[in-house]
């Protein structure tokens, strides 16, 4: 079992990134009751942002990350105002198709701007690896993991201790009561959406030095995030975090045992299995899936 | 043999016992009221009789054969129809289509079902609303719609959940009269009701529940004077 | 029957198409309009009439396409048999999905359907030994009706028109029959429907299974018409969205809506491909940007779709929008 340390390290690194994608998704669901089918496209845009900054301005992705935070947040806010706000009180189906429409549009904006070809951000440290005992890890992965964990932790702290975070949690629990208490739920939704988008946008910038980017790259990552979010219980941030690690473990161990070609089948089957057996997630209350009606 | 018999019904949710060993019989043609303060288990009992919940113990029988264990749609086809406390019209369908859905449980012919639906709408006083979308109706009208819809399934026992609940005062007498007329027509009715004045006016017999248990069962004037019933309600009043 | 004249006009125009039009490009457009319309109508059976919105219907389409192609290339069987096998397989999967729909509602159901189609995508693209993997399968052209090797596009128009009319009639049935009314009740409020004696689960399962089988039939015919099956296309989420989009655009839960939606989408796509195709391949993305934006705008202003929006007074039966 000399591979074990490597498997553990890989799982944790991968899980950290997945967590950052998943917490944004679950936050948006928890507060707004919207499943964002365009979540992956915000990831894709983050990756392209890093690519563009790198190709045109020679900016290192980590510099881009810091500079682009307000840009991503602003884009999130804008997309809420223009797309989501009009349908925030509409039925589930209307919301689903609105985000699907947004997803199609963003994907193809990317297609028109950057073509369907895979683009790479080849930094100088692309091949630099770090040795940790017998385990080997890519530097970019390590940085991505560290930033992802920091961002996730910051989001948790924000939700737990800041006044705004409390207001968001109150709205998640009961928007009608929150509204009666004088909370401007419209602003809460806008903020939630923008924060969720920022999380996944940051994840995109972080992934750029590791994975190639193409217009539909969002789907493969967001599918994993869906698995993690459902596994952790839709709307449950801590659950999403833990579930991201579980999904990463399934993927890493799956690739090791049966090869990379079939690893996706593993987590998709896990996903369908969870949906069937415990739609409310591992830690959720049974019957919570009825919210979906 | 009684038409509907409830015997030994017990239902728990986690640590809470919503119904504990509840038994009573309903004879054909009776109009029975079920009363009790909030949380006394009336709604749970209704959900059990109509097949939406499965009891942990006990059995409900219609004409001697068990209803418990069957799905709600099957219970309806066996002859027990219900209305909902929180009204559930098919808002996207027209009023007449709403009632047709009920009628189609008893007939295969759409035209026949439509005719039957119109008849029933006439009976509950919604005839002129037939072509409107159900979502346009007022609460009182929705109550009538639910009644018509349930009647369309030709029930032998009708379960009414809070017929006058949430309805403005002026609409109550009309609804009460409607229930009374249905009963006079020979229908067996079991109604949950908050409004004591309504229940004592129409029910022949009252079953009182408190904290999941049956505490009284008898004619209205006896039950409403029963010491435990009064305490249950007064206690409730004090708590509030 | 009243209220059906727009459909009569639509299908008559389609039937007369081959008589007056000889241009292969236009006939091809007509065939695709009818085929996509029929597929969207098949989606509509589950997504519109039963209210079970799926974004994984490409799975069924792909099952049909692969069944026809594989049975033909591996065992030399007729695509008609492949079509039947595909429909049976899709029905089986549809049953499973239908039973799941009882536990999974709204977004959960949508997610499950996406995951399901992704599983088939992976199987289709990775199981090299059987499906030829990501390279896809060229469907050999064997002349004859039994082998569906038909060069004359006018014959294809007749075949897909028959399928389209068949689907329209199914939807008309769902609009006006006893089962249709009951299904509408289930879609509006399942518990209320149950309380009125409607066997909700059975109806939902039947609707989803029928929808799956019909989608597979479309897939099988499409594979024979186009002559090539690419797993990344036939199992893609994009294709699933396309079926849903055509139905929603035209009017979800209306009989003619999916055909109208498919007409608009296919025409726009063909036009934009023809005008931008030469300039740069990337520009074909423009029509998809328009789709996406159109979908967002539609959901905001007319979530019930174009058919109800245009012809409110043509039918007395209310329509099921995603708004319901």
Description:
- The complex is a heterotrimer of chains A (293), B (240) and C (324).
- Chain A is mainly alpha-helical and 293 residues long.
- Chain A has 11 helices and 2 strands, in the order ααααββααααααα.
- Chain A has one domain (4-215).
- A two-stranded antiparallel sheet of chain A has the order 1-2.
- By secondary structure, chain B is an alpha/beta fold.
- Chain B has 2 domains: 4-79 and 156-239, P-loop containing nucleotide triphosphate hydrolases (Rossmann fold, 3-Layer(aba) Sandwich); 89-154.
- Helices cover 37% and strands 25% of the residues of chain B.
- Chain B has helices at residues 42-49, 72-78, 95-103, 110-124, 139-151, 172-184, 196-202, 220-223, 227-239, and strands at residues 4-13, 16-26, 31-35, 57-62, 65-66, 80-82, 157-161, 188-192, 205-210, 213-218.
- In chain B, strands 6-7-8-3-9-10 form a 6-stranded mixed β-sheet, with helices on both faces.
- Chain C has one domain.
- Helices cover 72% and strands 1% of the residues of chain C.
- Chain C has a two-stranded antiparallel ribbon.
- In chain C, α2 (24-49) packs parallel to α7.
- The longest helix of chain C has 27 residues, at 200-226.
- Chains A and C meet through α4, α9 and α11 of A and α5, α12 and α14 of C.
Largest interface: A-C, 53 and 47 residues
Q: For the residues shown, what is the average pLDDT of chain A?
A: 84
Oligomer: heterotrimer
User: How would a crystallographer describe the biggest sheet of chain C?
Assistant: 2 strands, antiparallel
Provide the low-confidence segments of chain A as ranges. Answer: 285-293
The Rg value of chain A, from CA coordinates, equals 19 Å
Structural class of chain C: mainly alpha
Describe the sheet with the most strands of chain A: 2 strands, antiparallel
Helical amount of chain C: over 70%
Strand order of the largest sheet of chain C: 1-2
Radius of gyration over C-alpha positions of chain C, nearest whole angstrom? 19 Å
């Amino acid at each position: 079992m000399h591979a074990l340390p490597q498997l553990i390290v890989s799982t944790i690194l991968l899980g950290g990134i997945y967590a950052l994608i998943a917490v944004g998704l679950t936050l948006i669901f928890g507060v707004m009751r919207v499943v964002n089918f365009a979540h992956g496209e915000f990831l894709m845009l983050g990756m392209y942002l890093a690519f563009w900054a790198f190709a045109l301005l020679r900016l290192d992705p980590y510099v881009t990350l810091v500079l682009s935070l307000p840009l991503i947040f602003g884009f999130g806010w804008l997309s809420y105002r223009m797309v989501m706000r009009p349908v925030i009180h509409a039925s589930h189906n209307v919301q689903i198709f609105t985000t699907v429409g947004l997803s199609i549009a963003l994907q193809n904006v990317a297609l028109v701007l950057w073509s369907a070809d895979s683009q790479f951000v080849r930094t100088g440290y692309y091949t630099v690896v770090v040795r940790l005992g017998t385990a080997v890890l890519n530097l970019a992965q390590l940085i991505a993991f560290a930033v992802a964990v920091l961002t996730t932790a910051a989001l948790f702290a924000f939700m737990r201790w800041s006044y705004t975070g409390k207001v968001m949690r109150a709205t998640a629990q009961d928007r009608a009561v929150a509204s009666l208490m004088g909370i401007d739920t419209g602003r809460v939704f806008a903020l939630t959406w923008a924060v969720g988008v920022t999380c996944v946008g940051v994840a995109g910038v972080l992934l750029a030095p590791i994975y190639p980017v193409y217009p539909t790259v969002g789907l493969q990552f967001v599918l994993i995030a869906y698995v993690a979010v459902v596994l952790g219980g839709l709307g449950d941030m801590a659950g999403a975090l833990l579930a991201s690690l579980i999904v990463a473990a399934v993927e890493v161990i799956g690739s090791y045992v049966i090869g990379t070609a079939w690893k996706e089948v593993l987590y998709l089957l896990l996903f369908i299995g969870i949906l069937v057996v415990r739609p409310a997630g591992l830690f959720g209350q049974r019957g919570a899936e009825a919210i979906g009606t | 043999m009684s038409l509907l018999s409830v015997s030994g019904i017990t239902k728990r949710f986690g640590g809470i016992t919503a119904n504990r060993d509840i038994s009573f019989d309903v004879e054909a043609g009776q109009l029975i009221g079920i009363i009790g303060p909030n949380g006394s288990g009336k709604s749970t009992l209704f959900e059990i009789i109509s097949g939406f919940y499965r009891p942990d113990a006990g059995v409900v029988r219609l004409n001697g054969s068990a209803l418990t264990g069957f799905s709600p749609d099957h219970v309806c086809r066996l002859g027990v129809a219900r209305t909902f406390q929180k009204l559930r019209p098919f808002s996207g369908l027209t009023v007449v289509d709403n009632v047709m859905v009920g009628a189609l449980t008893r007939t295969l012919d759409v035209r026949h079902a439509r005719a039957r639906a119109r008849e029933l709408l006439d009976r509950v006083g919604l005839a002129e609303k037939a072509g409107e979308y159900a979502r346009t109706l007022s609460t009182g009208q929705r109550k009538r719609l639910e009644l018509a819809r349930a009647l369309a399934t030709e029930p032998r026992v009708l379960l009414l959940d809070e017929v006058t609940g949430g309805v403005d005062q002026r609409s109550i007498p009309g609804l009460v009269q409607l229930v009374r007329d249905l009963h006079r027509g020979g229908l067996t009715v079991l109604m949950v009701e908050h409004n004591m004045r309504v229940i004592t006016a129409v029910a022949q017999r009252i079953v009182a529940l408190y904290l999941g248990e049956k505490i009284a069962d008898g004619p209205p004037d006896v039950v409403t004077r029963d010491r435990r019933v009064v305490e249950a309600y007064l206690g409730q009043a004090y708590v509030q | 029957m009243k209220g059906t004249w727009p459909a009569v006009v639509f299908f008559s125009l389609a039937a007369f198409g081959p008589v007056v039009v000889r241009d292969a490009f236009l006939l091809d457009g007509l065939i695709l309009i009818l085929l996509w319309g029929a597929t969207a109508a098949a989606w509509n059976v589950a997504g519109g009439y039963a209210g079970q919105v799926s974004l994984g219907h490409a799975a069924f389409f792909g099952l049909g396409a692969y069944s026809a192609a594989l049975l033909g290339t591996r065992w030399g069987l007729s695509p008609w048999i492949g079509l039947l096998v595909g429909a049976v397989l899709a029905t089986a999967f549809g049953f499973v999905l239908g039973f799941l729909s009882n536990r999974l509602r709204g977004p959960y159901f949508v997610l499950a359907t996406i995951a399901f189609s992704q599983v088939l995508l992976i199987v289709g693209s990775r199981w090299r030994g059987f499906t030829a993997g990501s390279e896809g399968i060229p469907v050999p052209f064997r002349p004859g009706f039994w082998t569906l090797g038909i060069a004359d596009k006018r014959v294809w128009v007749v075949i897909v028109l028959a399928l389209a009319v068949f689907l329209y009639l199914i939807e008309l049935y769902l609009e006006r029959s006893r089962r249709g009314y009951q299904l509408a009740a289930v879609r509006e409020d399942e518990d209320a429907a149950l309380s009125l004696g409607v066997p909700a689960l059975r109806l939902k399962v039947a609707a989803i299974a029928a929808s799956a089988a019909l989608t597979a039939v479309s897939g099988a015919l499409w594979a024979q018409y186009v002559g090539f099956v690419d797993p990344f296309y036939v199992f893609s989420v994009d294709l699933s969205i396309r079926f849903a989009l055509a139905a929603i655009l035209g009017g979800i839960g209306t009989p003619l809506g999916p055909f109208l939606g498919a007409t608009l989408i296919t025409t726009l796509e063909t036009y934009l491909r023809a005008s931008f195709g030469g300039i740069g391949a990337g520009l074909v993305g423009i029509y998809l940007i328009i789709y996406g934006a159109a979908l967002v705008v539609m959901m905001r202003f007319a979530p019930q779709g174009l058919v109800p929006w245009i012809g409110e007074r043509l039918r007395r039966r209310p329509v099921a929008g995603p708004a319901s």
